[in-house]
Amino acid sequence: MSLIERAIAANRKNAVHHDPSLANKPAPKVAILTCMDPRLNQLLEWLDIKPADADVIRNVGTAATEDVVRSLMFSIHVLGVREIMVVGHTGCGMEMFSEDDFEKHLHKQCGVWAVAPDKFHFYTDVNGATQKQVLKLRSHPWIPSDVVIRGFVFDLSTGELREVTPKEANNRLAA
Ligand SMILES: [Zn+2]
After folding, report:
1. What is the Å distance from ligand 1's center to 9 Cα?
2. Whose CA is closest to 85, among 107, 111, 127, 57?
3. In angstroms, what is the span from residue 61 Cα to ligand 1's centroid?
4. Is 107 strand, coil or helix?
5. By the 8 A CB rule, do 40 and 90 touch?
6. Span from the CA of 121 to the centroid of ligand 1 (angstroms)
7. Please, which residues bridge with residue 87 across strands?
8. What whole-number distance in Å separates Cα of residue 14 and Cα of residue 84?
9. Among 16, 85, 128, 163, which one is most buried in terms of CB atoms within 10 A?
10. Ligand 1 centre from 37 Cα, in Å?
């Protein structure tokens, strides 16, 4: 049986015990931008953050893209989130290719060139890449300066979270 078929069957059993209060309006306290990597699926647990308290926004490589900002607009300006964590991680797949190599890889796989996506957000240094995402969000005109934005790298071998928030982001906070 495929995993999706198993999931559908499991839902039929589990829906009986569902907590209907989950239909109430969400009230997240923090937004977390992180990687879609399945090794990070227990991140909230490791940070002792209750699922109800976090808007978790994920994509490959923890990239602060236009669509991430779109989600954050809802977190901040509709749901009242005042803190954002950007969590990169060690050993990310985004270190495996360059933009050019990956485009060539896709061409080889699919046999055609395509106009989009134009950028895949590959990087060589997770600290620098995570800092850059923080600064991209920090300078966004629709993210108020009193919203805290802090960057971290999660080390998958030690389980430790290391802060990498760049100085410029802190200066903006202190100002
Ligand atoms: Zn990753």
Report:
1. 30
2. 57
3. 5
4. helix
5. no
6. 11
7. 34, 152
8. 32
9. 85
10. 5
Q: String of b and e for 57-85 (b: at least 16 CB within 10 Å)?
A: bbbebbbbbeebbebbeebbeeeebebbb
CATH topology for 25-174 is Beta-carbonic Anhydrase; Chain A (3.40.1050)
- Whole-model pTM: value is 0.94
pLDDT one digit per residue (tens) for the chain, 175 residues = 899 999 999 999 999 999 999 999 999 999 999 999 999 999 999 999 999 999 999 999 999 999 999 999 999 999 999 999 999 999 999 999 999 999 999 999 999 999 999 999 999 999 999 999 999 999 999 999 999 999 999 999 999 999 999 998 977 555 5
**Domain chopping of the chain, boundaries:** 25-174
Interval between CA 156 and ligand 1 midpoint (Å): 10
DSSP-derived letter for residue 137 is: H
